[in-house]
Specification:
The protein folds into 2 domains: about 100 residues, Orthogonal Bundle (Farnesyl Diphosphate Synthase); about 220 residues, Orthogonal Bundle (Farnesyl Diphosphate Synthase), CATH 1.10.600. The protein is mainly alpha-helical. The chain has 17 helices and no strands.
Length: about 350
């Protein structure tokens, strides 16, 4: 890819921002709270994710996925497709030495959707969450200027935890759209047949026990992620901590509703979000055992890919401390769902 002028770079970023503003006003507004060193590459990342998601939404299945893989090949070869998102993301990939395995994982998650893959057990769900959520967390950690393997492992924990929370919150909504995240073996242990539940989704105490089990797993990962947040640049910690607390609070709201996320969708009130955001300013736990814990089996390949990809340029100096709370909540809420496509239909 020939060197771009400053004018070309800014024009591409402006086009990416305009593209996102049309479909995600929350991201467009929240990105303004980011320092330029993170806001610009995050915008390019999200724009490429949006392009990929839109292509799959248009239909075409395997053909569209093949097209996306060709475009990703061009990005990593320095010959991006003419689309502004491809050009902008190619510069981000080069500047931050993003391993190809990370965006490839995102595309693989889309492929799993297209193929109708199911989640027979927790390991399969973890593998899926690694692709549609943890991969984004790993990329964002690189954009923040952090390549520490322990911090990356904990960022992946946070991404998986958020995905599990989304699943717990959206059981009914997903089922009514013919989608199911809950591990099939968990359901069967409670006497629930996945296909029968999808045919007539209804809350039962047995389903509540499955949701509670999912939330317990998410909470364990939220707690472990705190040690990684403490390793991030100072100006990034409050925002990511806010995302951790607000997402965990969604699980508490599901519990307040008797674990029934079929009849209604849990929503954390604004006043509670504000208190949680204030809590994020307090120093998080930094337990050595948590920091040193190995990456989840399903996310280890993401951490290993970064370890094998050294940064070719000196990192940019960090700006002063600023509040990033609203940005982090909106960004992770949007990216880890990839426009709500991270759901696997049961056949």
């Amino acid at each position: 890819m020939p060197p771009a002028t400053a004018e070309t770079v800014q024009a591409d970023l402006a086009a990416c921002r305009a593209m996102l503003a049309g479909g995600s006003k929350s991201f467009a507004a929240a990105a303004k709270l980011l320092p330029r060193r993170v806001a610009e590459p995050a915008t390019a990342l999200y724009a490429f994710c949006r392009v990929a998601d839109d292509l799959i939404d248009e239909g075409g299945g395997a053909a569209r996925l093949a097209e996306l893989r060709v475009r990703l090949e061009g990005i990593y070869a320095g010959r991006p497709h003419g689309h502004v998102a491809d050009r902008a993301f190619a510069r981000v990939v080069s500047r931050f030495a993003i391993p190809r395995a990370l965006p490839e994982a995102l595309l693989e998650g889309l492929a799993w959707d297209t193929e109708g893959r199911q989640c027979p057990d927790e390991a399969a769900l973890e593998d899926y969450a690694a692709r549609v959520a943890a991969a984004v967390g790993a990329i964002m950690t690189l954009l923040m200027g952090c390549r520490d393997s322990q911090a990356l492992a904990r960022a992946c924990d946070l991404g998986v935890a958020m995905q599990l929370t989304n699943i717990a919150r959206d059981v009914g909504e997903d089922a009514r759209n013919g989608r199911l995240y809950l591990p099939h073996d968990w359901l069967r242990e409670e006497g629930i047949a996945p296909a029968a539940f999808l045919a007539a989704p209804a809350f039962t105490p047995a389903l509540g026990r499955v949701v509670a089990r999912l939330l317990r797993r998410a909470d364990a990962l939220y707690r472990r992620s705190e040690a990684g947040i403490a390793r991030l640049p100072r100006d990034c910690r409050p925002g990511i901590a806010a995302a951790r607390f607000v997402y965990a609070a969604i699980g508490r709201q599901v519990e307040r509703q008797g674990l029934d996320s079929v009849s209604r969708r849990a929503v954390v009130p604004a006043h509670r979000k504000l208190r949680l955001m204030a809590r994020s300013l307090i120093l998080l736990g930094n337990r050595p055992a948590d920091l040193e814990a190995p990456a989840l089996p399903g996310t280890a390949f993401l951490v290993e890919a970064v370890e094998a990809t050294p940064l070719r340029e000196a990192p940019l100096p960090l700006p002063g401390f600023r509040d990033r709370l609203v940005w982090a909540v909106d960004l992770f809420d949007r990216l880890d769902r990839i426009d709500g496509r991270a759901a696997v239909p049961v056949r």
